Each structure stands twice: as C-alpha cells, then as structure tokens.
Amino acid sequence: MLTKRFFKTKDEAEVTFEFSHPQAKKVELVAEFTDWQPLAMRFVKKDGAFKLKQRLPVDKQYHFKYLIDGTKWDNDHNADAYVPNGFGTENSVVNTQRIV
Fold it and tell me: Which segments does the entry list as coiled coil (predicted)?
C-alpha cells in the first residue's frame, strides 16, 4: 500500500511504502530512486506490516518492487500502475504527481 503526503512549501512528497507478508522475516524496497539498491523496511508489529517512508520529488513516476527474505520479488498490490520490466515480469509504479 502507498500513502502520500504533500507539502505546501516543498517540491517533494513523503511516500509511505507498506507491505504485508505473513511469513517474511525481512522485506526490502528496491527502486529506481535507490539505484536499485535494497532499502530495509521496518516491521511494525501493531500493523503486521513492513513500512518505509521516503521523500521523493513531485511530478515524477518511479518503478519499484519488494524483495522478500532476499529471494522472492513481489509488487505492491495497490501501486499506482504496473509496467513490464526486462525480466519478463512487472514493476510497481508510484506517481508523485500532486492532485489539485
């Protein structure tokens, strides 16, 4: 799940990436904006989900995926869009366009 917060005085959005996977011990966010390097997500016990907040420039689109336990890839089931990648699967897309 993606949650976005926009700032009146900054050209960036705070995006909260949230992913639930009952058997996962570790979930990482891998994205264009990290140069495809994994970022560890924090497990929030009360929500039962892994979360990560990231500030991103507004009016852009970024591809991303979740890496579960270092071996399994998954998409965000509530992403803004999905696009084919070079591996025969799809990437999730987050759009930071400000809705007026």
Answer: none
On the question of pLDDT at 100 being above 80, the answer is no
Give a yes or no: residue 10 inside a domain: yes
Tell whether 100 is covered by a domain.
Answer: no
For 67-70, the CB contacts below 8 A with 24+ separation are: 67/27, 67/28, 67/29, 67/30, 67/38, 68/21, 68/24, 68/26, 68/27, 69/24, 69/25, 69/26, 69/27, 70/26, 70/28
Total of domains in the chain: 1
Whether the full predicted model's pTM is greater than 0.85, yes or no, is yes
Give the chain's largest Cα–Cα span: 41
